[in-house]
Amino acid sequence: MNEKQTIQCLILGSGPAGYTAAIYAARAELKPVLYTGAQPGGQLTITTEVENYPGYPNGVQGPEMMEDFKKQAERFNTDIRYGLATKVDFSKRPFKVTIDDTTDVYAETVIISTGASAKWLGLPSEQRLNGHGVSACAVCDGFFFRGQEVAIVGGGDTACEEASYLAKLCKKVYMLVRRDEMRASKIMQQRVLNNPNIQVLFNHETLEILGDDHVTGVRVKDHKTGEEKTIAVSGFFVAIGHKPNTEIFKGWLDMDENGYIITKPGTTQTNIPGVFAAGDAQDKIYRQAITAAGTGCMAALEAERFLAAQEAGV
Fold first, then answer.
1. Is 104 among the residues known to form the active site?
2. pLDDT at 50 over 90
3. Does 137 qualify as catalytic in the annotation?
4. Residue 262's pLDDT band (boundaries 50, 70, 90)?
5. pTM of the predicted model, to two decimals?
């Protein structure tokens, strides 16, 4: 497809939402073009075992699963291109999207599936052991640590929710809170503090995650006493928030205070007709591969209906 031609359906991002949107759009003969973004395959490419996605009875490695999604999208002739959207102009249709600051493409509809990135502590050991006991999703990976002792860092509602979830599966959960209090709502704090399986360690900073090829412990510092100690754990969960990859859409699309794109209830429609948002870029609640794929399907169906209505002059 010539770059100067108008694309009927442009998909930005290549996680479960983007590839599912591509499969549906391609089968509807919208000839979708998908740009992979900075992380082809999305967050699942840094995940090891995925056991909670239907259709994989024995589980599947995250990168392998995203390769399956990609192959299925290609089977229906999705035009998959490597590149990152760096600027948009949604003032009129066809919409203009700049790729890698160099190439302008034009599209009648745009599906945003740029995802969100977990916030990390920034420790070298955290990066080294990511997927080997270090995780940013307790719901995704907690199952692998049943009956074991784990640590979770964070002090907000998400950290409390994930600690409570882990406490159902794990023998013990150490909750590491940097300050002398949590940011979480009172009810969430009470749930954690009243749970016998959770030990909250206030004023504790994570210094290093220990282990060669898998997490064996975490070295922490008690800011009140200055003491450093090692806690033996086999899993380390980071729950300090996520950041949606939506920066380039600011000023164009309605967003909440954290940058998640706001869609009309029950749809993937944004405030601009013809622009749709799917997956973690608009979902701060569930953040699962299966829900992302579901909204990718919705976005493609809505894009198809939008184009049909435009053609019919409705």
1. no
2. no
3. yes
4. very high
5. 0.81
